[in-house]
Design goal:
The protein contains 6 helices and 7 strands, in the order ββααααααβββββ. Helix 3 crosses helix 5. The N terminus is likely disordered.
Length: 195
């Protein structure tokens, strides 16, 4: 059976025109014109510049992380890219924060990552987004867990990646992670396997 394999779903259906790069570009152009075009884009930029410097820095870090992670996963593969992230951020020291403060920082980073992902002109997967958020939290010494799971729904296999802190999923996603069976034990932000 020929089919597409992509993180998020496994489908045996052949690709349709909207799945191709040209179809996606046409859809974005149509959406740009229908959704207010340049006016909405300018409003977005104005809101961005009205936020605090820390918030802008987080969004820019997230955007850079998303771009690098997308390329890293596609060029090196998931396991090698994850190992590279672990090596790059191994030296981050655990911060002396209360659980409340740690969750507040992690939630702010998750919102920044979601904002960056929403405005990048790329089709990002949950794996790209989860790895990026996990990486950004590791850099801050926050022991979040990268989780990957799967389920079968309507005869199709679906996979999903997400980040948890203290057992709670960070960030918004299109999937409810509770409905996915995890593939392996979670990896903490410090690189050790959680028990």
């Amino acid at each position: 059976m020929s089919g597409r394999i992509g993180f998020g779903t496994f489908s045996t259906r052949p690709p349709v025109e909207s799945d191709t790069p040209l179809g996606a570009a046409a859809r974005r152009t149509r959406d740009f014109r229908r959704d207010g075009g340049l006016e909405n884009t300018m409003k977005t930029w104005r809101r961005f510049w009205q936020t605090s410097g820390d918030a802008r820095a987080r969004v820019l870090q997230a955007a850079g992380g998303l771009l690098v992670t997308r390329a890293g996963v596609r060029l090196a593969g998931f396991r090698k890219w994850k190992a590279a992230i672990e090596r790059l951020t191994r030296m981050a020291k655990a911060r002396e924060l209360s659980a409340h403060d740690e969750m507040a920082i992690a939630s702010a980073m998750a919102r920044s990552e979601a904002a960056a992902a929403r405005h990048l002109p790329l089709k990002l997967t949950c794996l790209d987004r989860a790895l990026t958020l996990w990486w950004l939290l590791r850099k801050r010494g926050i022991a979040a867990e990268l989780r990957i799971g799967g389920r079968k729904k309507s005869g199709e296999f679906e996979a999903h990646a997400w980040v948890e802190l203290g057992g709670a999923e960070l960030g918004a996603s299109n999937f409810d992670s509770r409905h996915f069976a995890t593939f392996e034990r979670p990896t903490t932000a410090r690189g050790a396997r959680a028990l």
